[in-house]
């Protein structure tokens, strides 16, 4: 090709096909850019064909090996989930006690399923509940979190009764299912079944996730809904980009080429996975209010994804095109849906209007349910009163809750600053007893008393390694423009950074369980880099496998070592002291 012909060929290219100016300048020095894949593969990278080498080495026939390889996308995650479920449901009712904040959510959940609103329980009721008490007072109770998480906990109580197994069952189930979701999400994100299963396995052996999955607190429920929403937007990303890829024109060589008419003008139609993400984000907000941060963060992320997809497809003005074609529908698919789900979660509170008497006023209804009629001073009359008055009462209730949540500063023994969360400097003790030899599982031949503790402590080596993984992902995102790193960092930032605005508030390290799945994805991505990129030499692969395998085995060993203080198993006091690596853990 002559220089004149090359010039005309270059002028005939679309803007998306032109190499960047820096590449053109470096060509005079002999620089050759890496060959770019087909635009369709850039939009939706294919899943690599699973290998059969391992199964063949085990002596399986070719057909059976191919079948097992095809099933690995599900069999691998299911095996990891089976392990996670076995350890989480093992002796789920132990300790047989109301531990830490179960004193609020277990009883509130029981009242919700009985009356539709939370009740005010006597202060000394916990011991009676353990002995079988299940009568619910009908006086409304003041609560500071929306009801969905407690409805979820109450489903287990409806199945098994008001007892430790009942109020922990659904949290353990969601904790187990979150491992399955993370395996599948990691597989889709990294296009690797191995890395997806690795991310799920890391979360399965994390102590914080393990303890939170066996305790009826709201944060594990919130984590489940957030992770489900992330999975939905990830699927939506692949589906929408596949539609763009299918609409691109194909050249004589069979490869697709960018086209500005497709990139700028193609309508992507109904996107049900985005609506599903709105539903899950609404459930997250209706569990704890910090779910709203994920709604905003994921909303911004999907807008950037849409613009990037249109740019790859050939759009001349990708952000303008995304603003015109995608953003309005993205908003309608998430924000109004989430708001509707949030309001629907208060159905029990709305429906129980109670009874009114001149002597006692409104009775048998939720807290603040009739604030507009009693104390608001501006109740609406007429046919809209049944709608506007409850909404005004709920708004007042939410204002009071906001004030409580933003001003809570009562000192607590186990509160911690978010700066210390990633290194697990101050875990939370949910339960502690000191049984004597021969009591509550303490060995008869123990030289001294024993310790039984349930400590909400993340597996230390996992969290410390995740700090390095976050640094690696920052590099990948900022300098290599790796969208996968950006997606994982978005999840970490949404769950972690807002707490720095409330450093004077009483907060705890177990809030970090919400962004723990994204830490596991970050660590899996770093381990994938340690293993080496495709095409690496055999020596590089062996060195990477040794390093990555050592790290994973150490994390698993760390989980096993701390197992007794995750489960409340009685161990000699000296063995307990050996596990208190830092004074701040006591």
Automatic annotation (TrEMBL):
Keyword Transferase set for record: yes
The Protein O-mannosyl-transferase C-terminal four TM domain, residue ranges: 391-585
Molecular function GO labels: dolichyl-phosphate-mannose-protein mannosyltransferase activity
Involved pathway(s): Protein modification; protein glycosylation
Occurrences of domain ArnT-like N-terminal (ranges): 79-234
Gene Ontology cellular component annotations, sorted alphabetically: endomembrane system; plasma membrane
Membrane topology designation: Multi-pass membrane protein
Enzyme Commission code(s) on record: 2.4.1.-
Transmembrane segments: 71-90, 165-185, 192-211, 217-235, 289-308, 329-351, 461-478, 485-502, 508-530, 542-563
Localization, UniProt: Cell membrane; Endomembrane system
Signal sequence residues: none
Annotated keywords: Cell membrane, Glycosyltransferase, Membrane, Transferase, Transmembrane, Transmembrane helix
Function: Protein O-mannosyltransferase that catalyzes the transfer of a single mannose residue from a polyprenol phospho-mannosyl lipidic donor to the hydroxyl group of selected serine and threonine residues in acceptor proteins.
PANTHER family: DOLICHYL-PHOSPHATE-MANNOSE--PROTEIN MANNOSYLTRANSFERASE (PTHR10050), PROTEIN O-MANNOSYL-TRANSFERASE 2 (PTHR10050:SF46)
Family: Belongs to the glycosyltransferase 39 family.
Protein name, as recorded: Polyprenol-phosphate-mannose--protein mannosyltransferase
Originating species: Streptosporangium nondiastaticum
